[in-house]
């Protein structure tokens, strides 16, 4: 079956690839040509909440890379796509360790742990204004990401049977069609997302 992994690269203004963020998605596409519709749907997803990005993020040359899951490793992309945001992100940034998580899943089935039918993406480089007075994600940010996720799901439903959004598990059955998702009102913080220090202040 033609299943694809799509890497969405979120570039930073410093043009240091090590600082870029990458979201990993999974899709069924009947043909390589149907990846064009996948790319368009993903572009729409990111554009919907892009107003919440900080000045760390580059406006131009966002990139998607699609890989055929049946190809031997290391895999070469079978298709790529790039686009620009309509305006340059601005505003102070939250720490780069901080992200908002969007989770999604397929319908549960008997005999399969639901964890194998779930997925998530981490949305980074957010504007400091998205942190509300209770130190939680703002309602505006949550609403924007909910709208983006709903739009991607609606596009997937409309695109079937040519393409659809799926989850992937390395344990059989490996793929399942996404039917719903959610965003919790709490940040996800991981030190490994952070950048290397560029200076050190010393006292002695």
Give an overview in words.
The protein has 204 residues and is α+β, with helices and mostly antiparallel strands. The protein has one domain (3-193). 18% of the residues lie in helices and 29% in strands. The protein is built from 2 helices and 9 strands. Strands 1, 2, 3, 4, 5, 6, 7, 8 and 9 form a 9-stranded antiparallel beta sheet that branches.
Which short descriptors sum up this protein?
204 residues, 18% helix, alpha+beta, nine-stranded antiparallel sheet
Assign an overall shape. Answer: globular
Strand fraction band?
A: 25-35%
Fraction in helix:
10-25%
Mean pLDDT, as a whole number? 96
Tally of alpha and pi helices: 2
**Main sheet record:** 9 strands, antiparallel
Number of domains: 1
Uncertain parts: none
Short description:
This protein is of the alpha+beta class and 204 residues long.
Show the helix and strand layout.
Blueprint: E1 3-10, E2 21-29, H1 35-49, E3 62-68, E4 79-83, E5 98-106, E6 118-123, H2 139-159, E7 163-168, E8 175-182, E9 188-189
Antiparallel strand pairs: 1-2, 1-3, 2-7, 3-4, 5-6, 5-8, 5-9, 7-8
């Amino acid at each position: 079956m033609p299943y694809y992994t799509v890497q969405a690269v979120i570039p930073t203004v410093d043009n240091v690839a090590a600082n870029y963020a990458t979201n990993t998605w999974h899709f069924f596409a009947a043909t390589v040509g149907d990846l064009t519709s996948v790319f368009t749907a993903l572009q729409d997803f990111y554009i919907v909440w892009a107003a919440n990005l900080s000045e760390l993020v580059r406006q131009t040359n966002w990139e998607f890379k699609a890989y055929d899951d049946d190809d031997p490793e290391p895999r070469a992309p079978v298709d790529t796509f790039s686009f620009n945001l309509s305006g340059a992100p601005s505003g102070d940034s939250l720490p780069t360790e901080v992200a908002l998580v969007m989770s999604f899943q397929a319908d549960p089935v008997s005999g399969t742990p639901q964890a194998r039918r779930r997925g998530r993406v981490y949305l980074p480089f957010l504007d400091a204004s998205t942190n509300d007075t209770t130190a939680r994600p703002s309602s505006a940010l949550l609403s924007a990401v909910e709208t983006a996720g709903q739009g991607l799901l609606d596009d997937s439903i409309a695109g079937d049977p040519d393409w659809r959004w799926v989850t992937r598990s390395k344990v059989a059955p490996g793929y399942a069609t996404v039917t719903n998702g959610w965003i919790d009102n709490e940040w996800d913080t991981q030190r490994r997302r952070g950048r290397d220090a560029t200076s050190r202040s010393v006292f002695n």
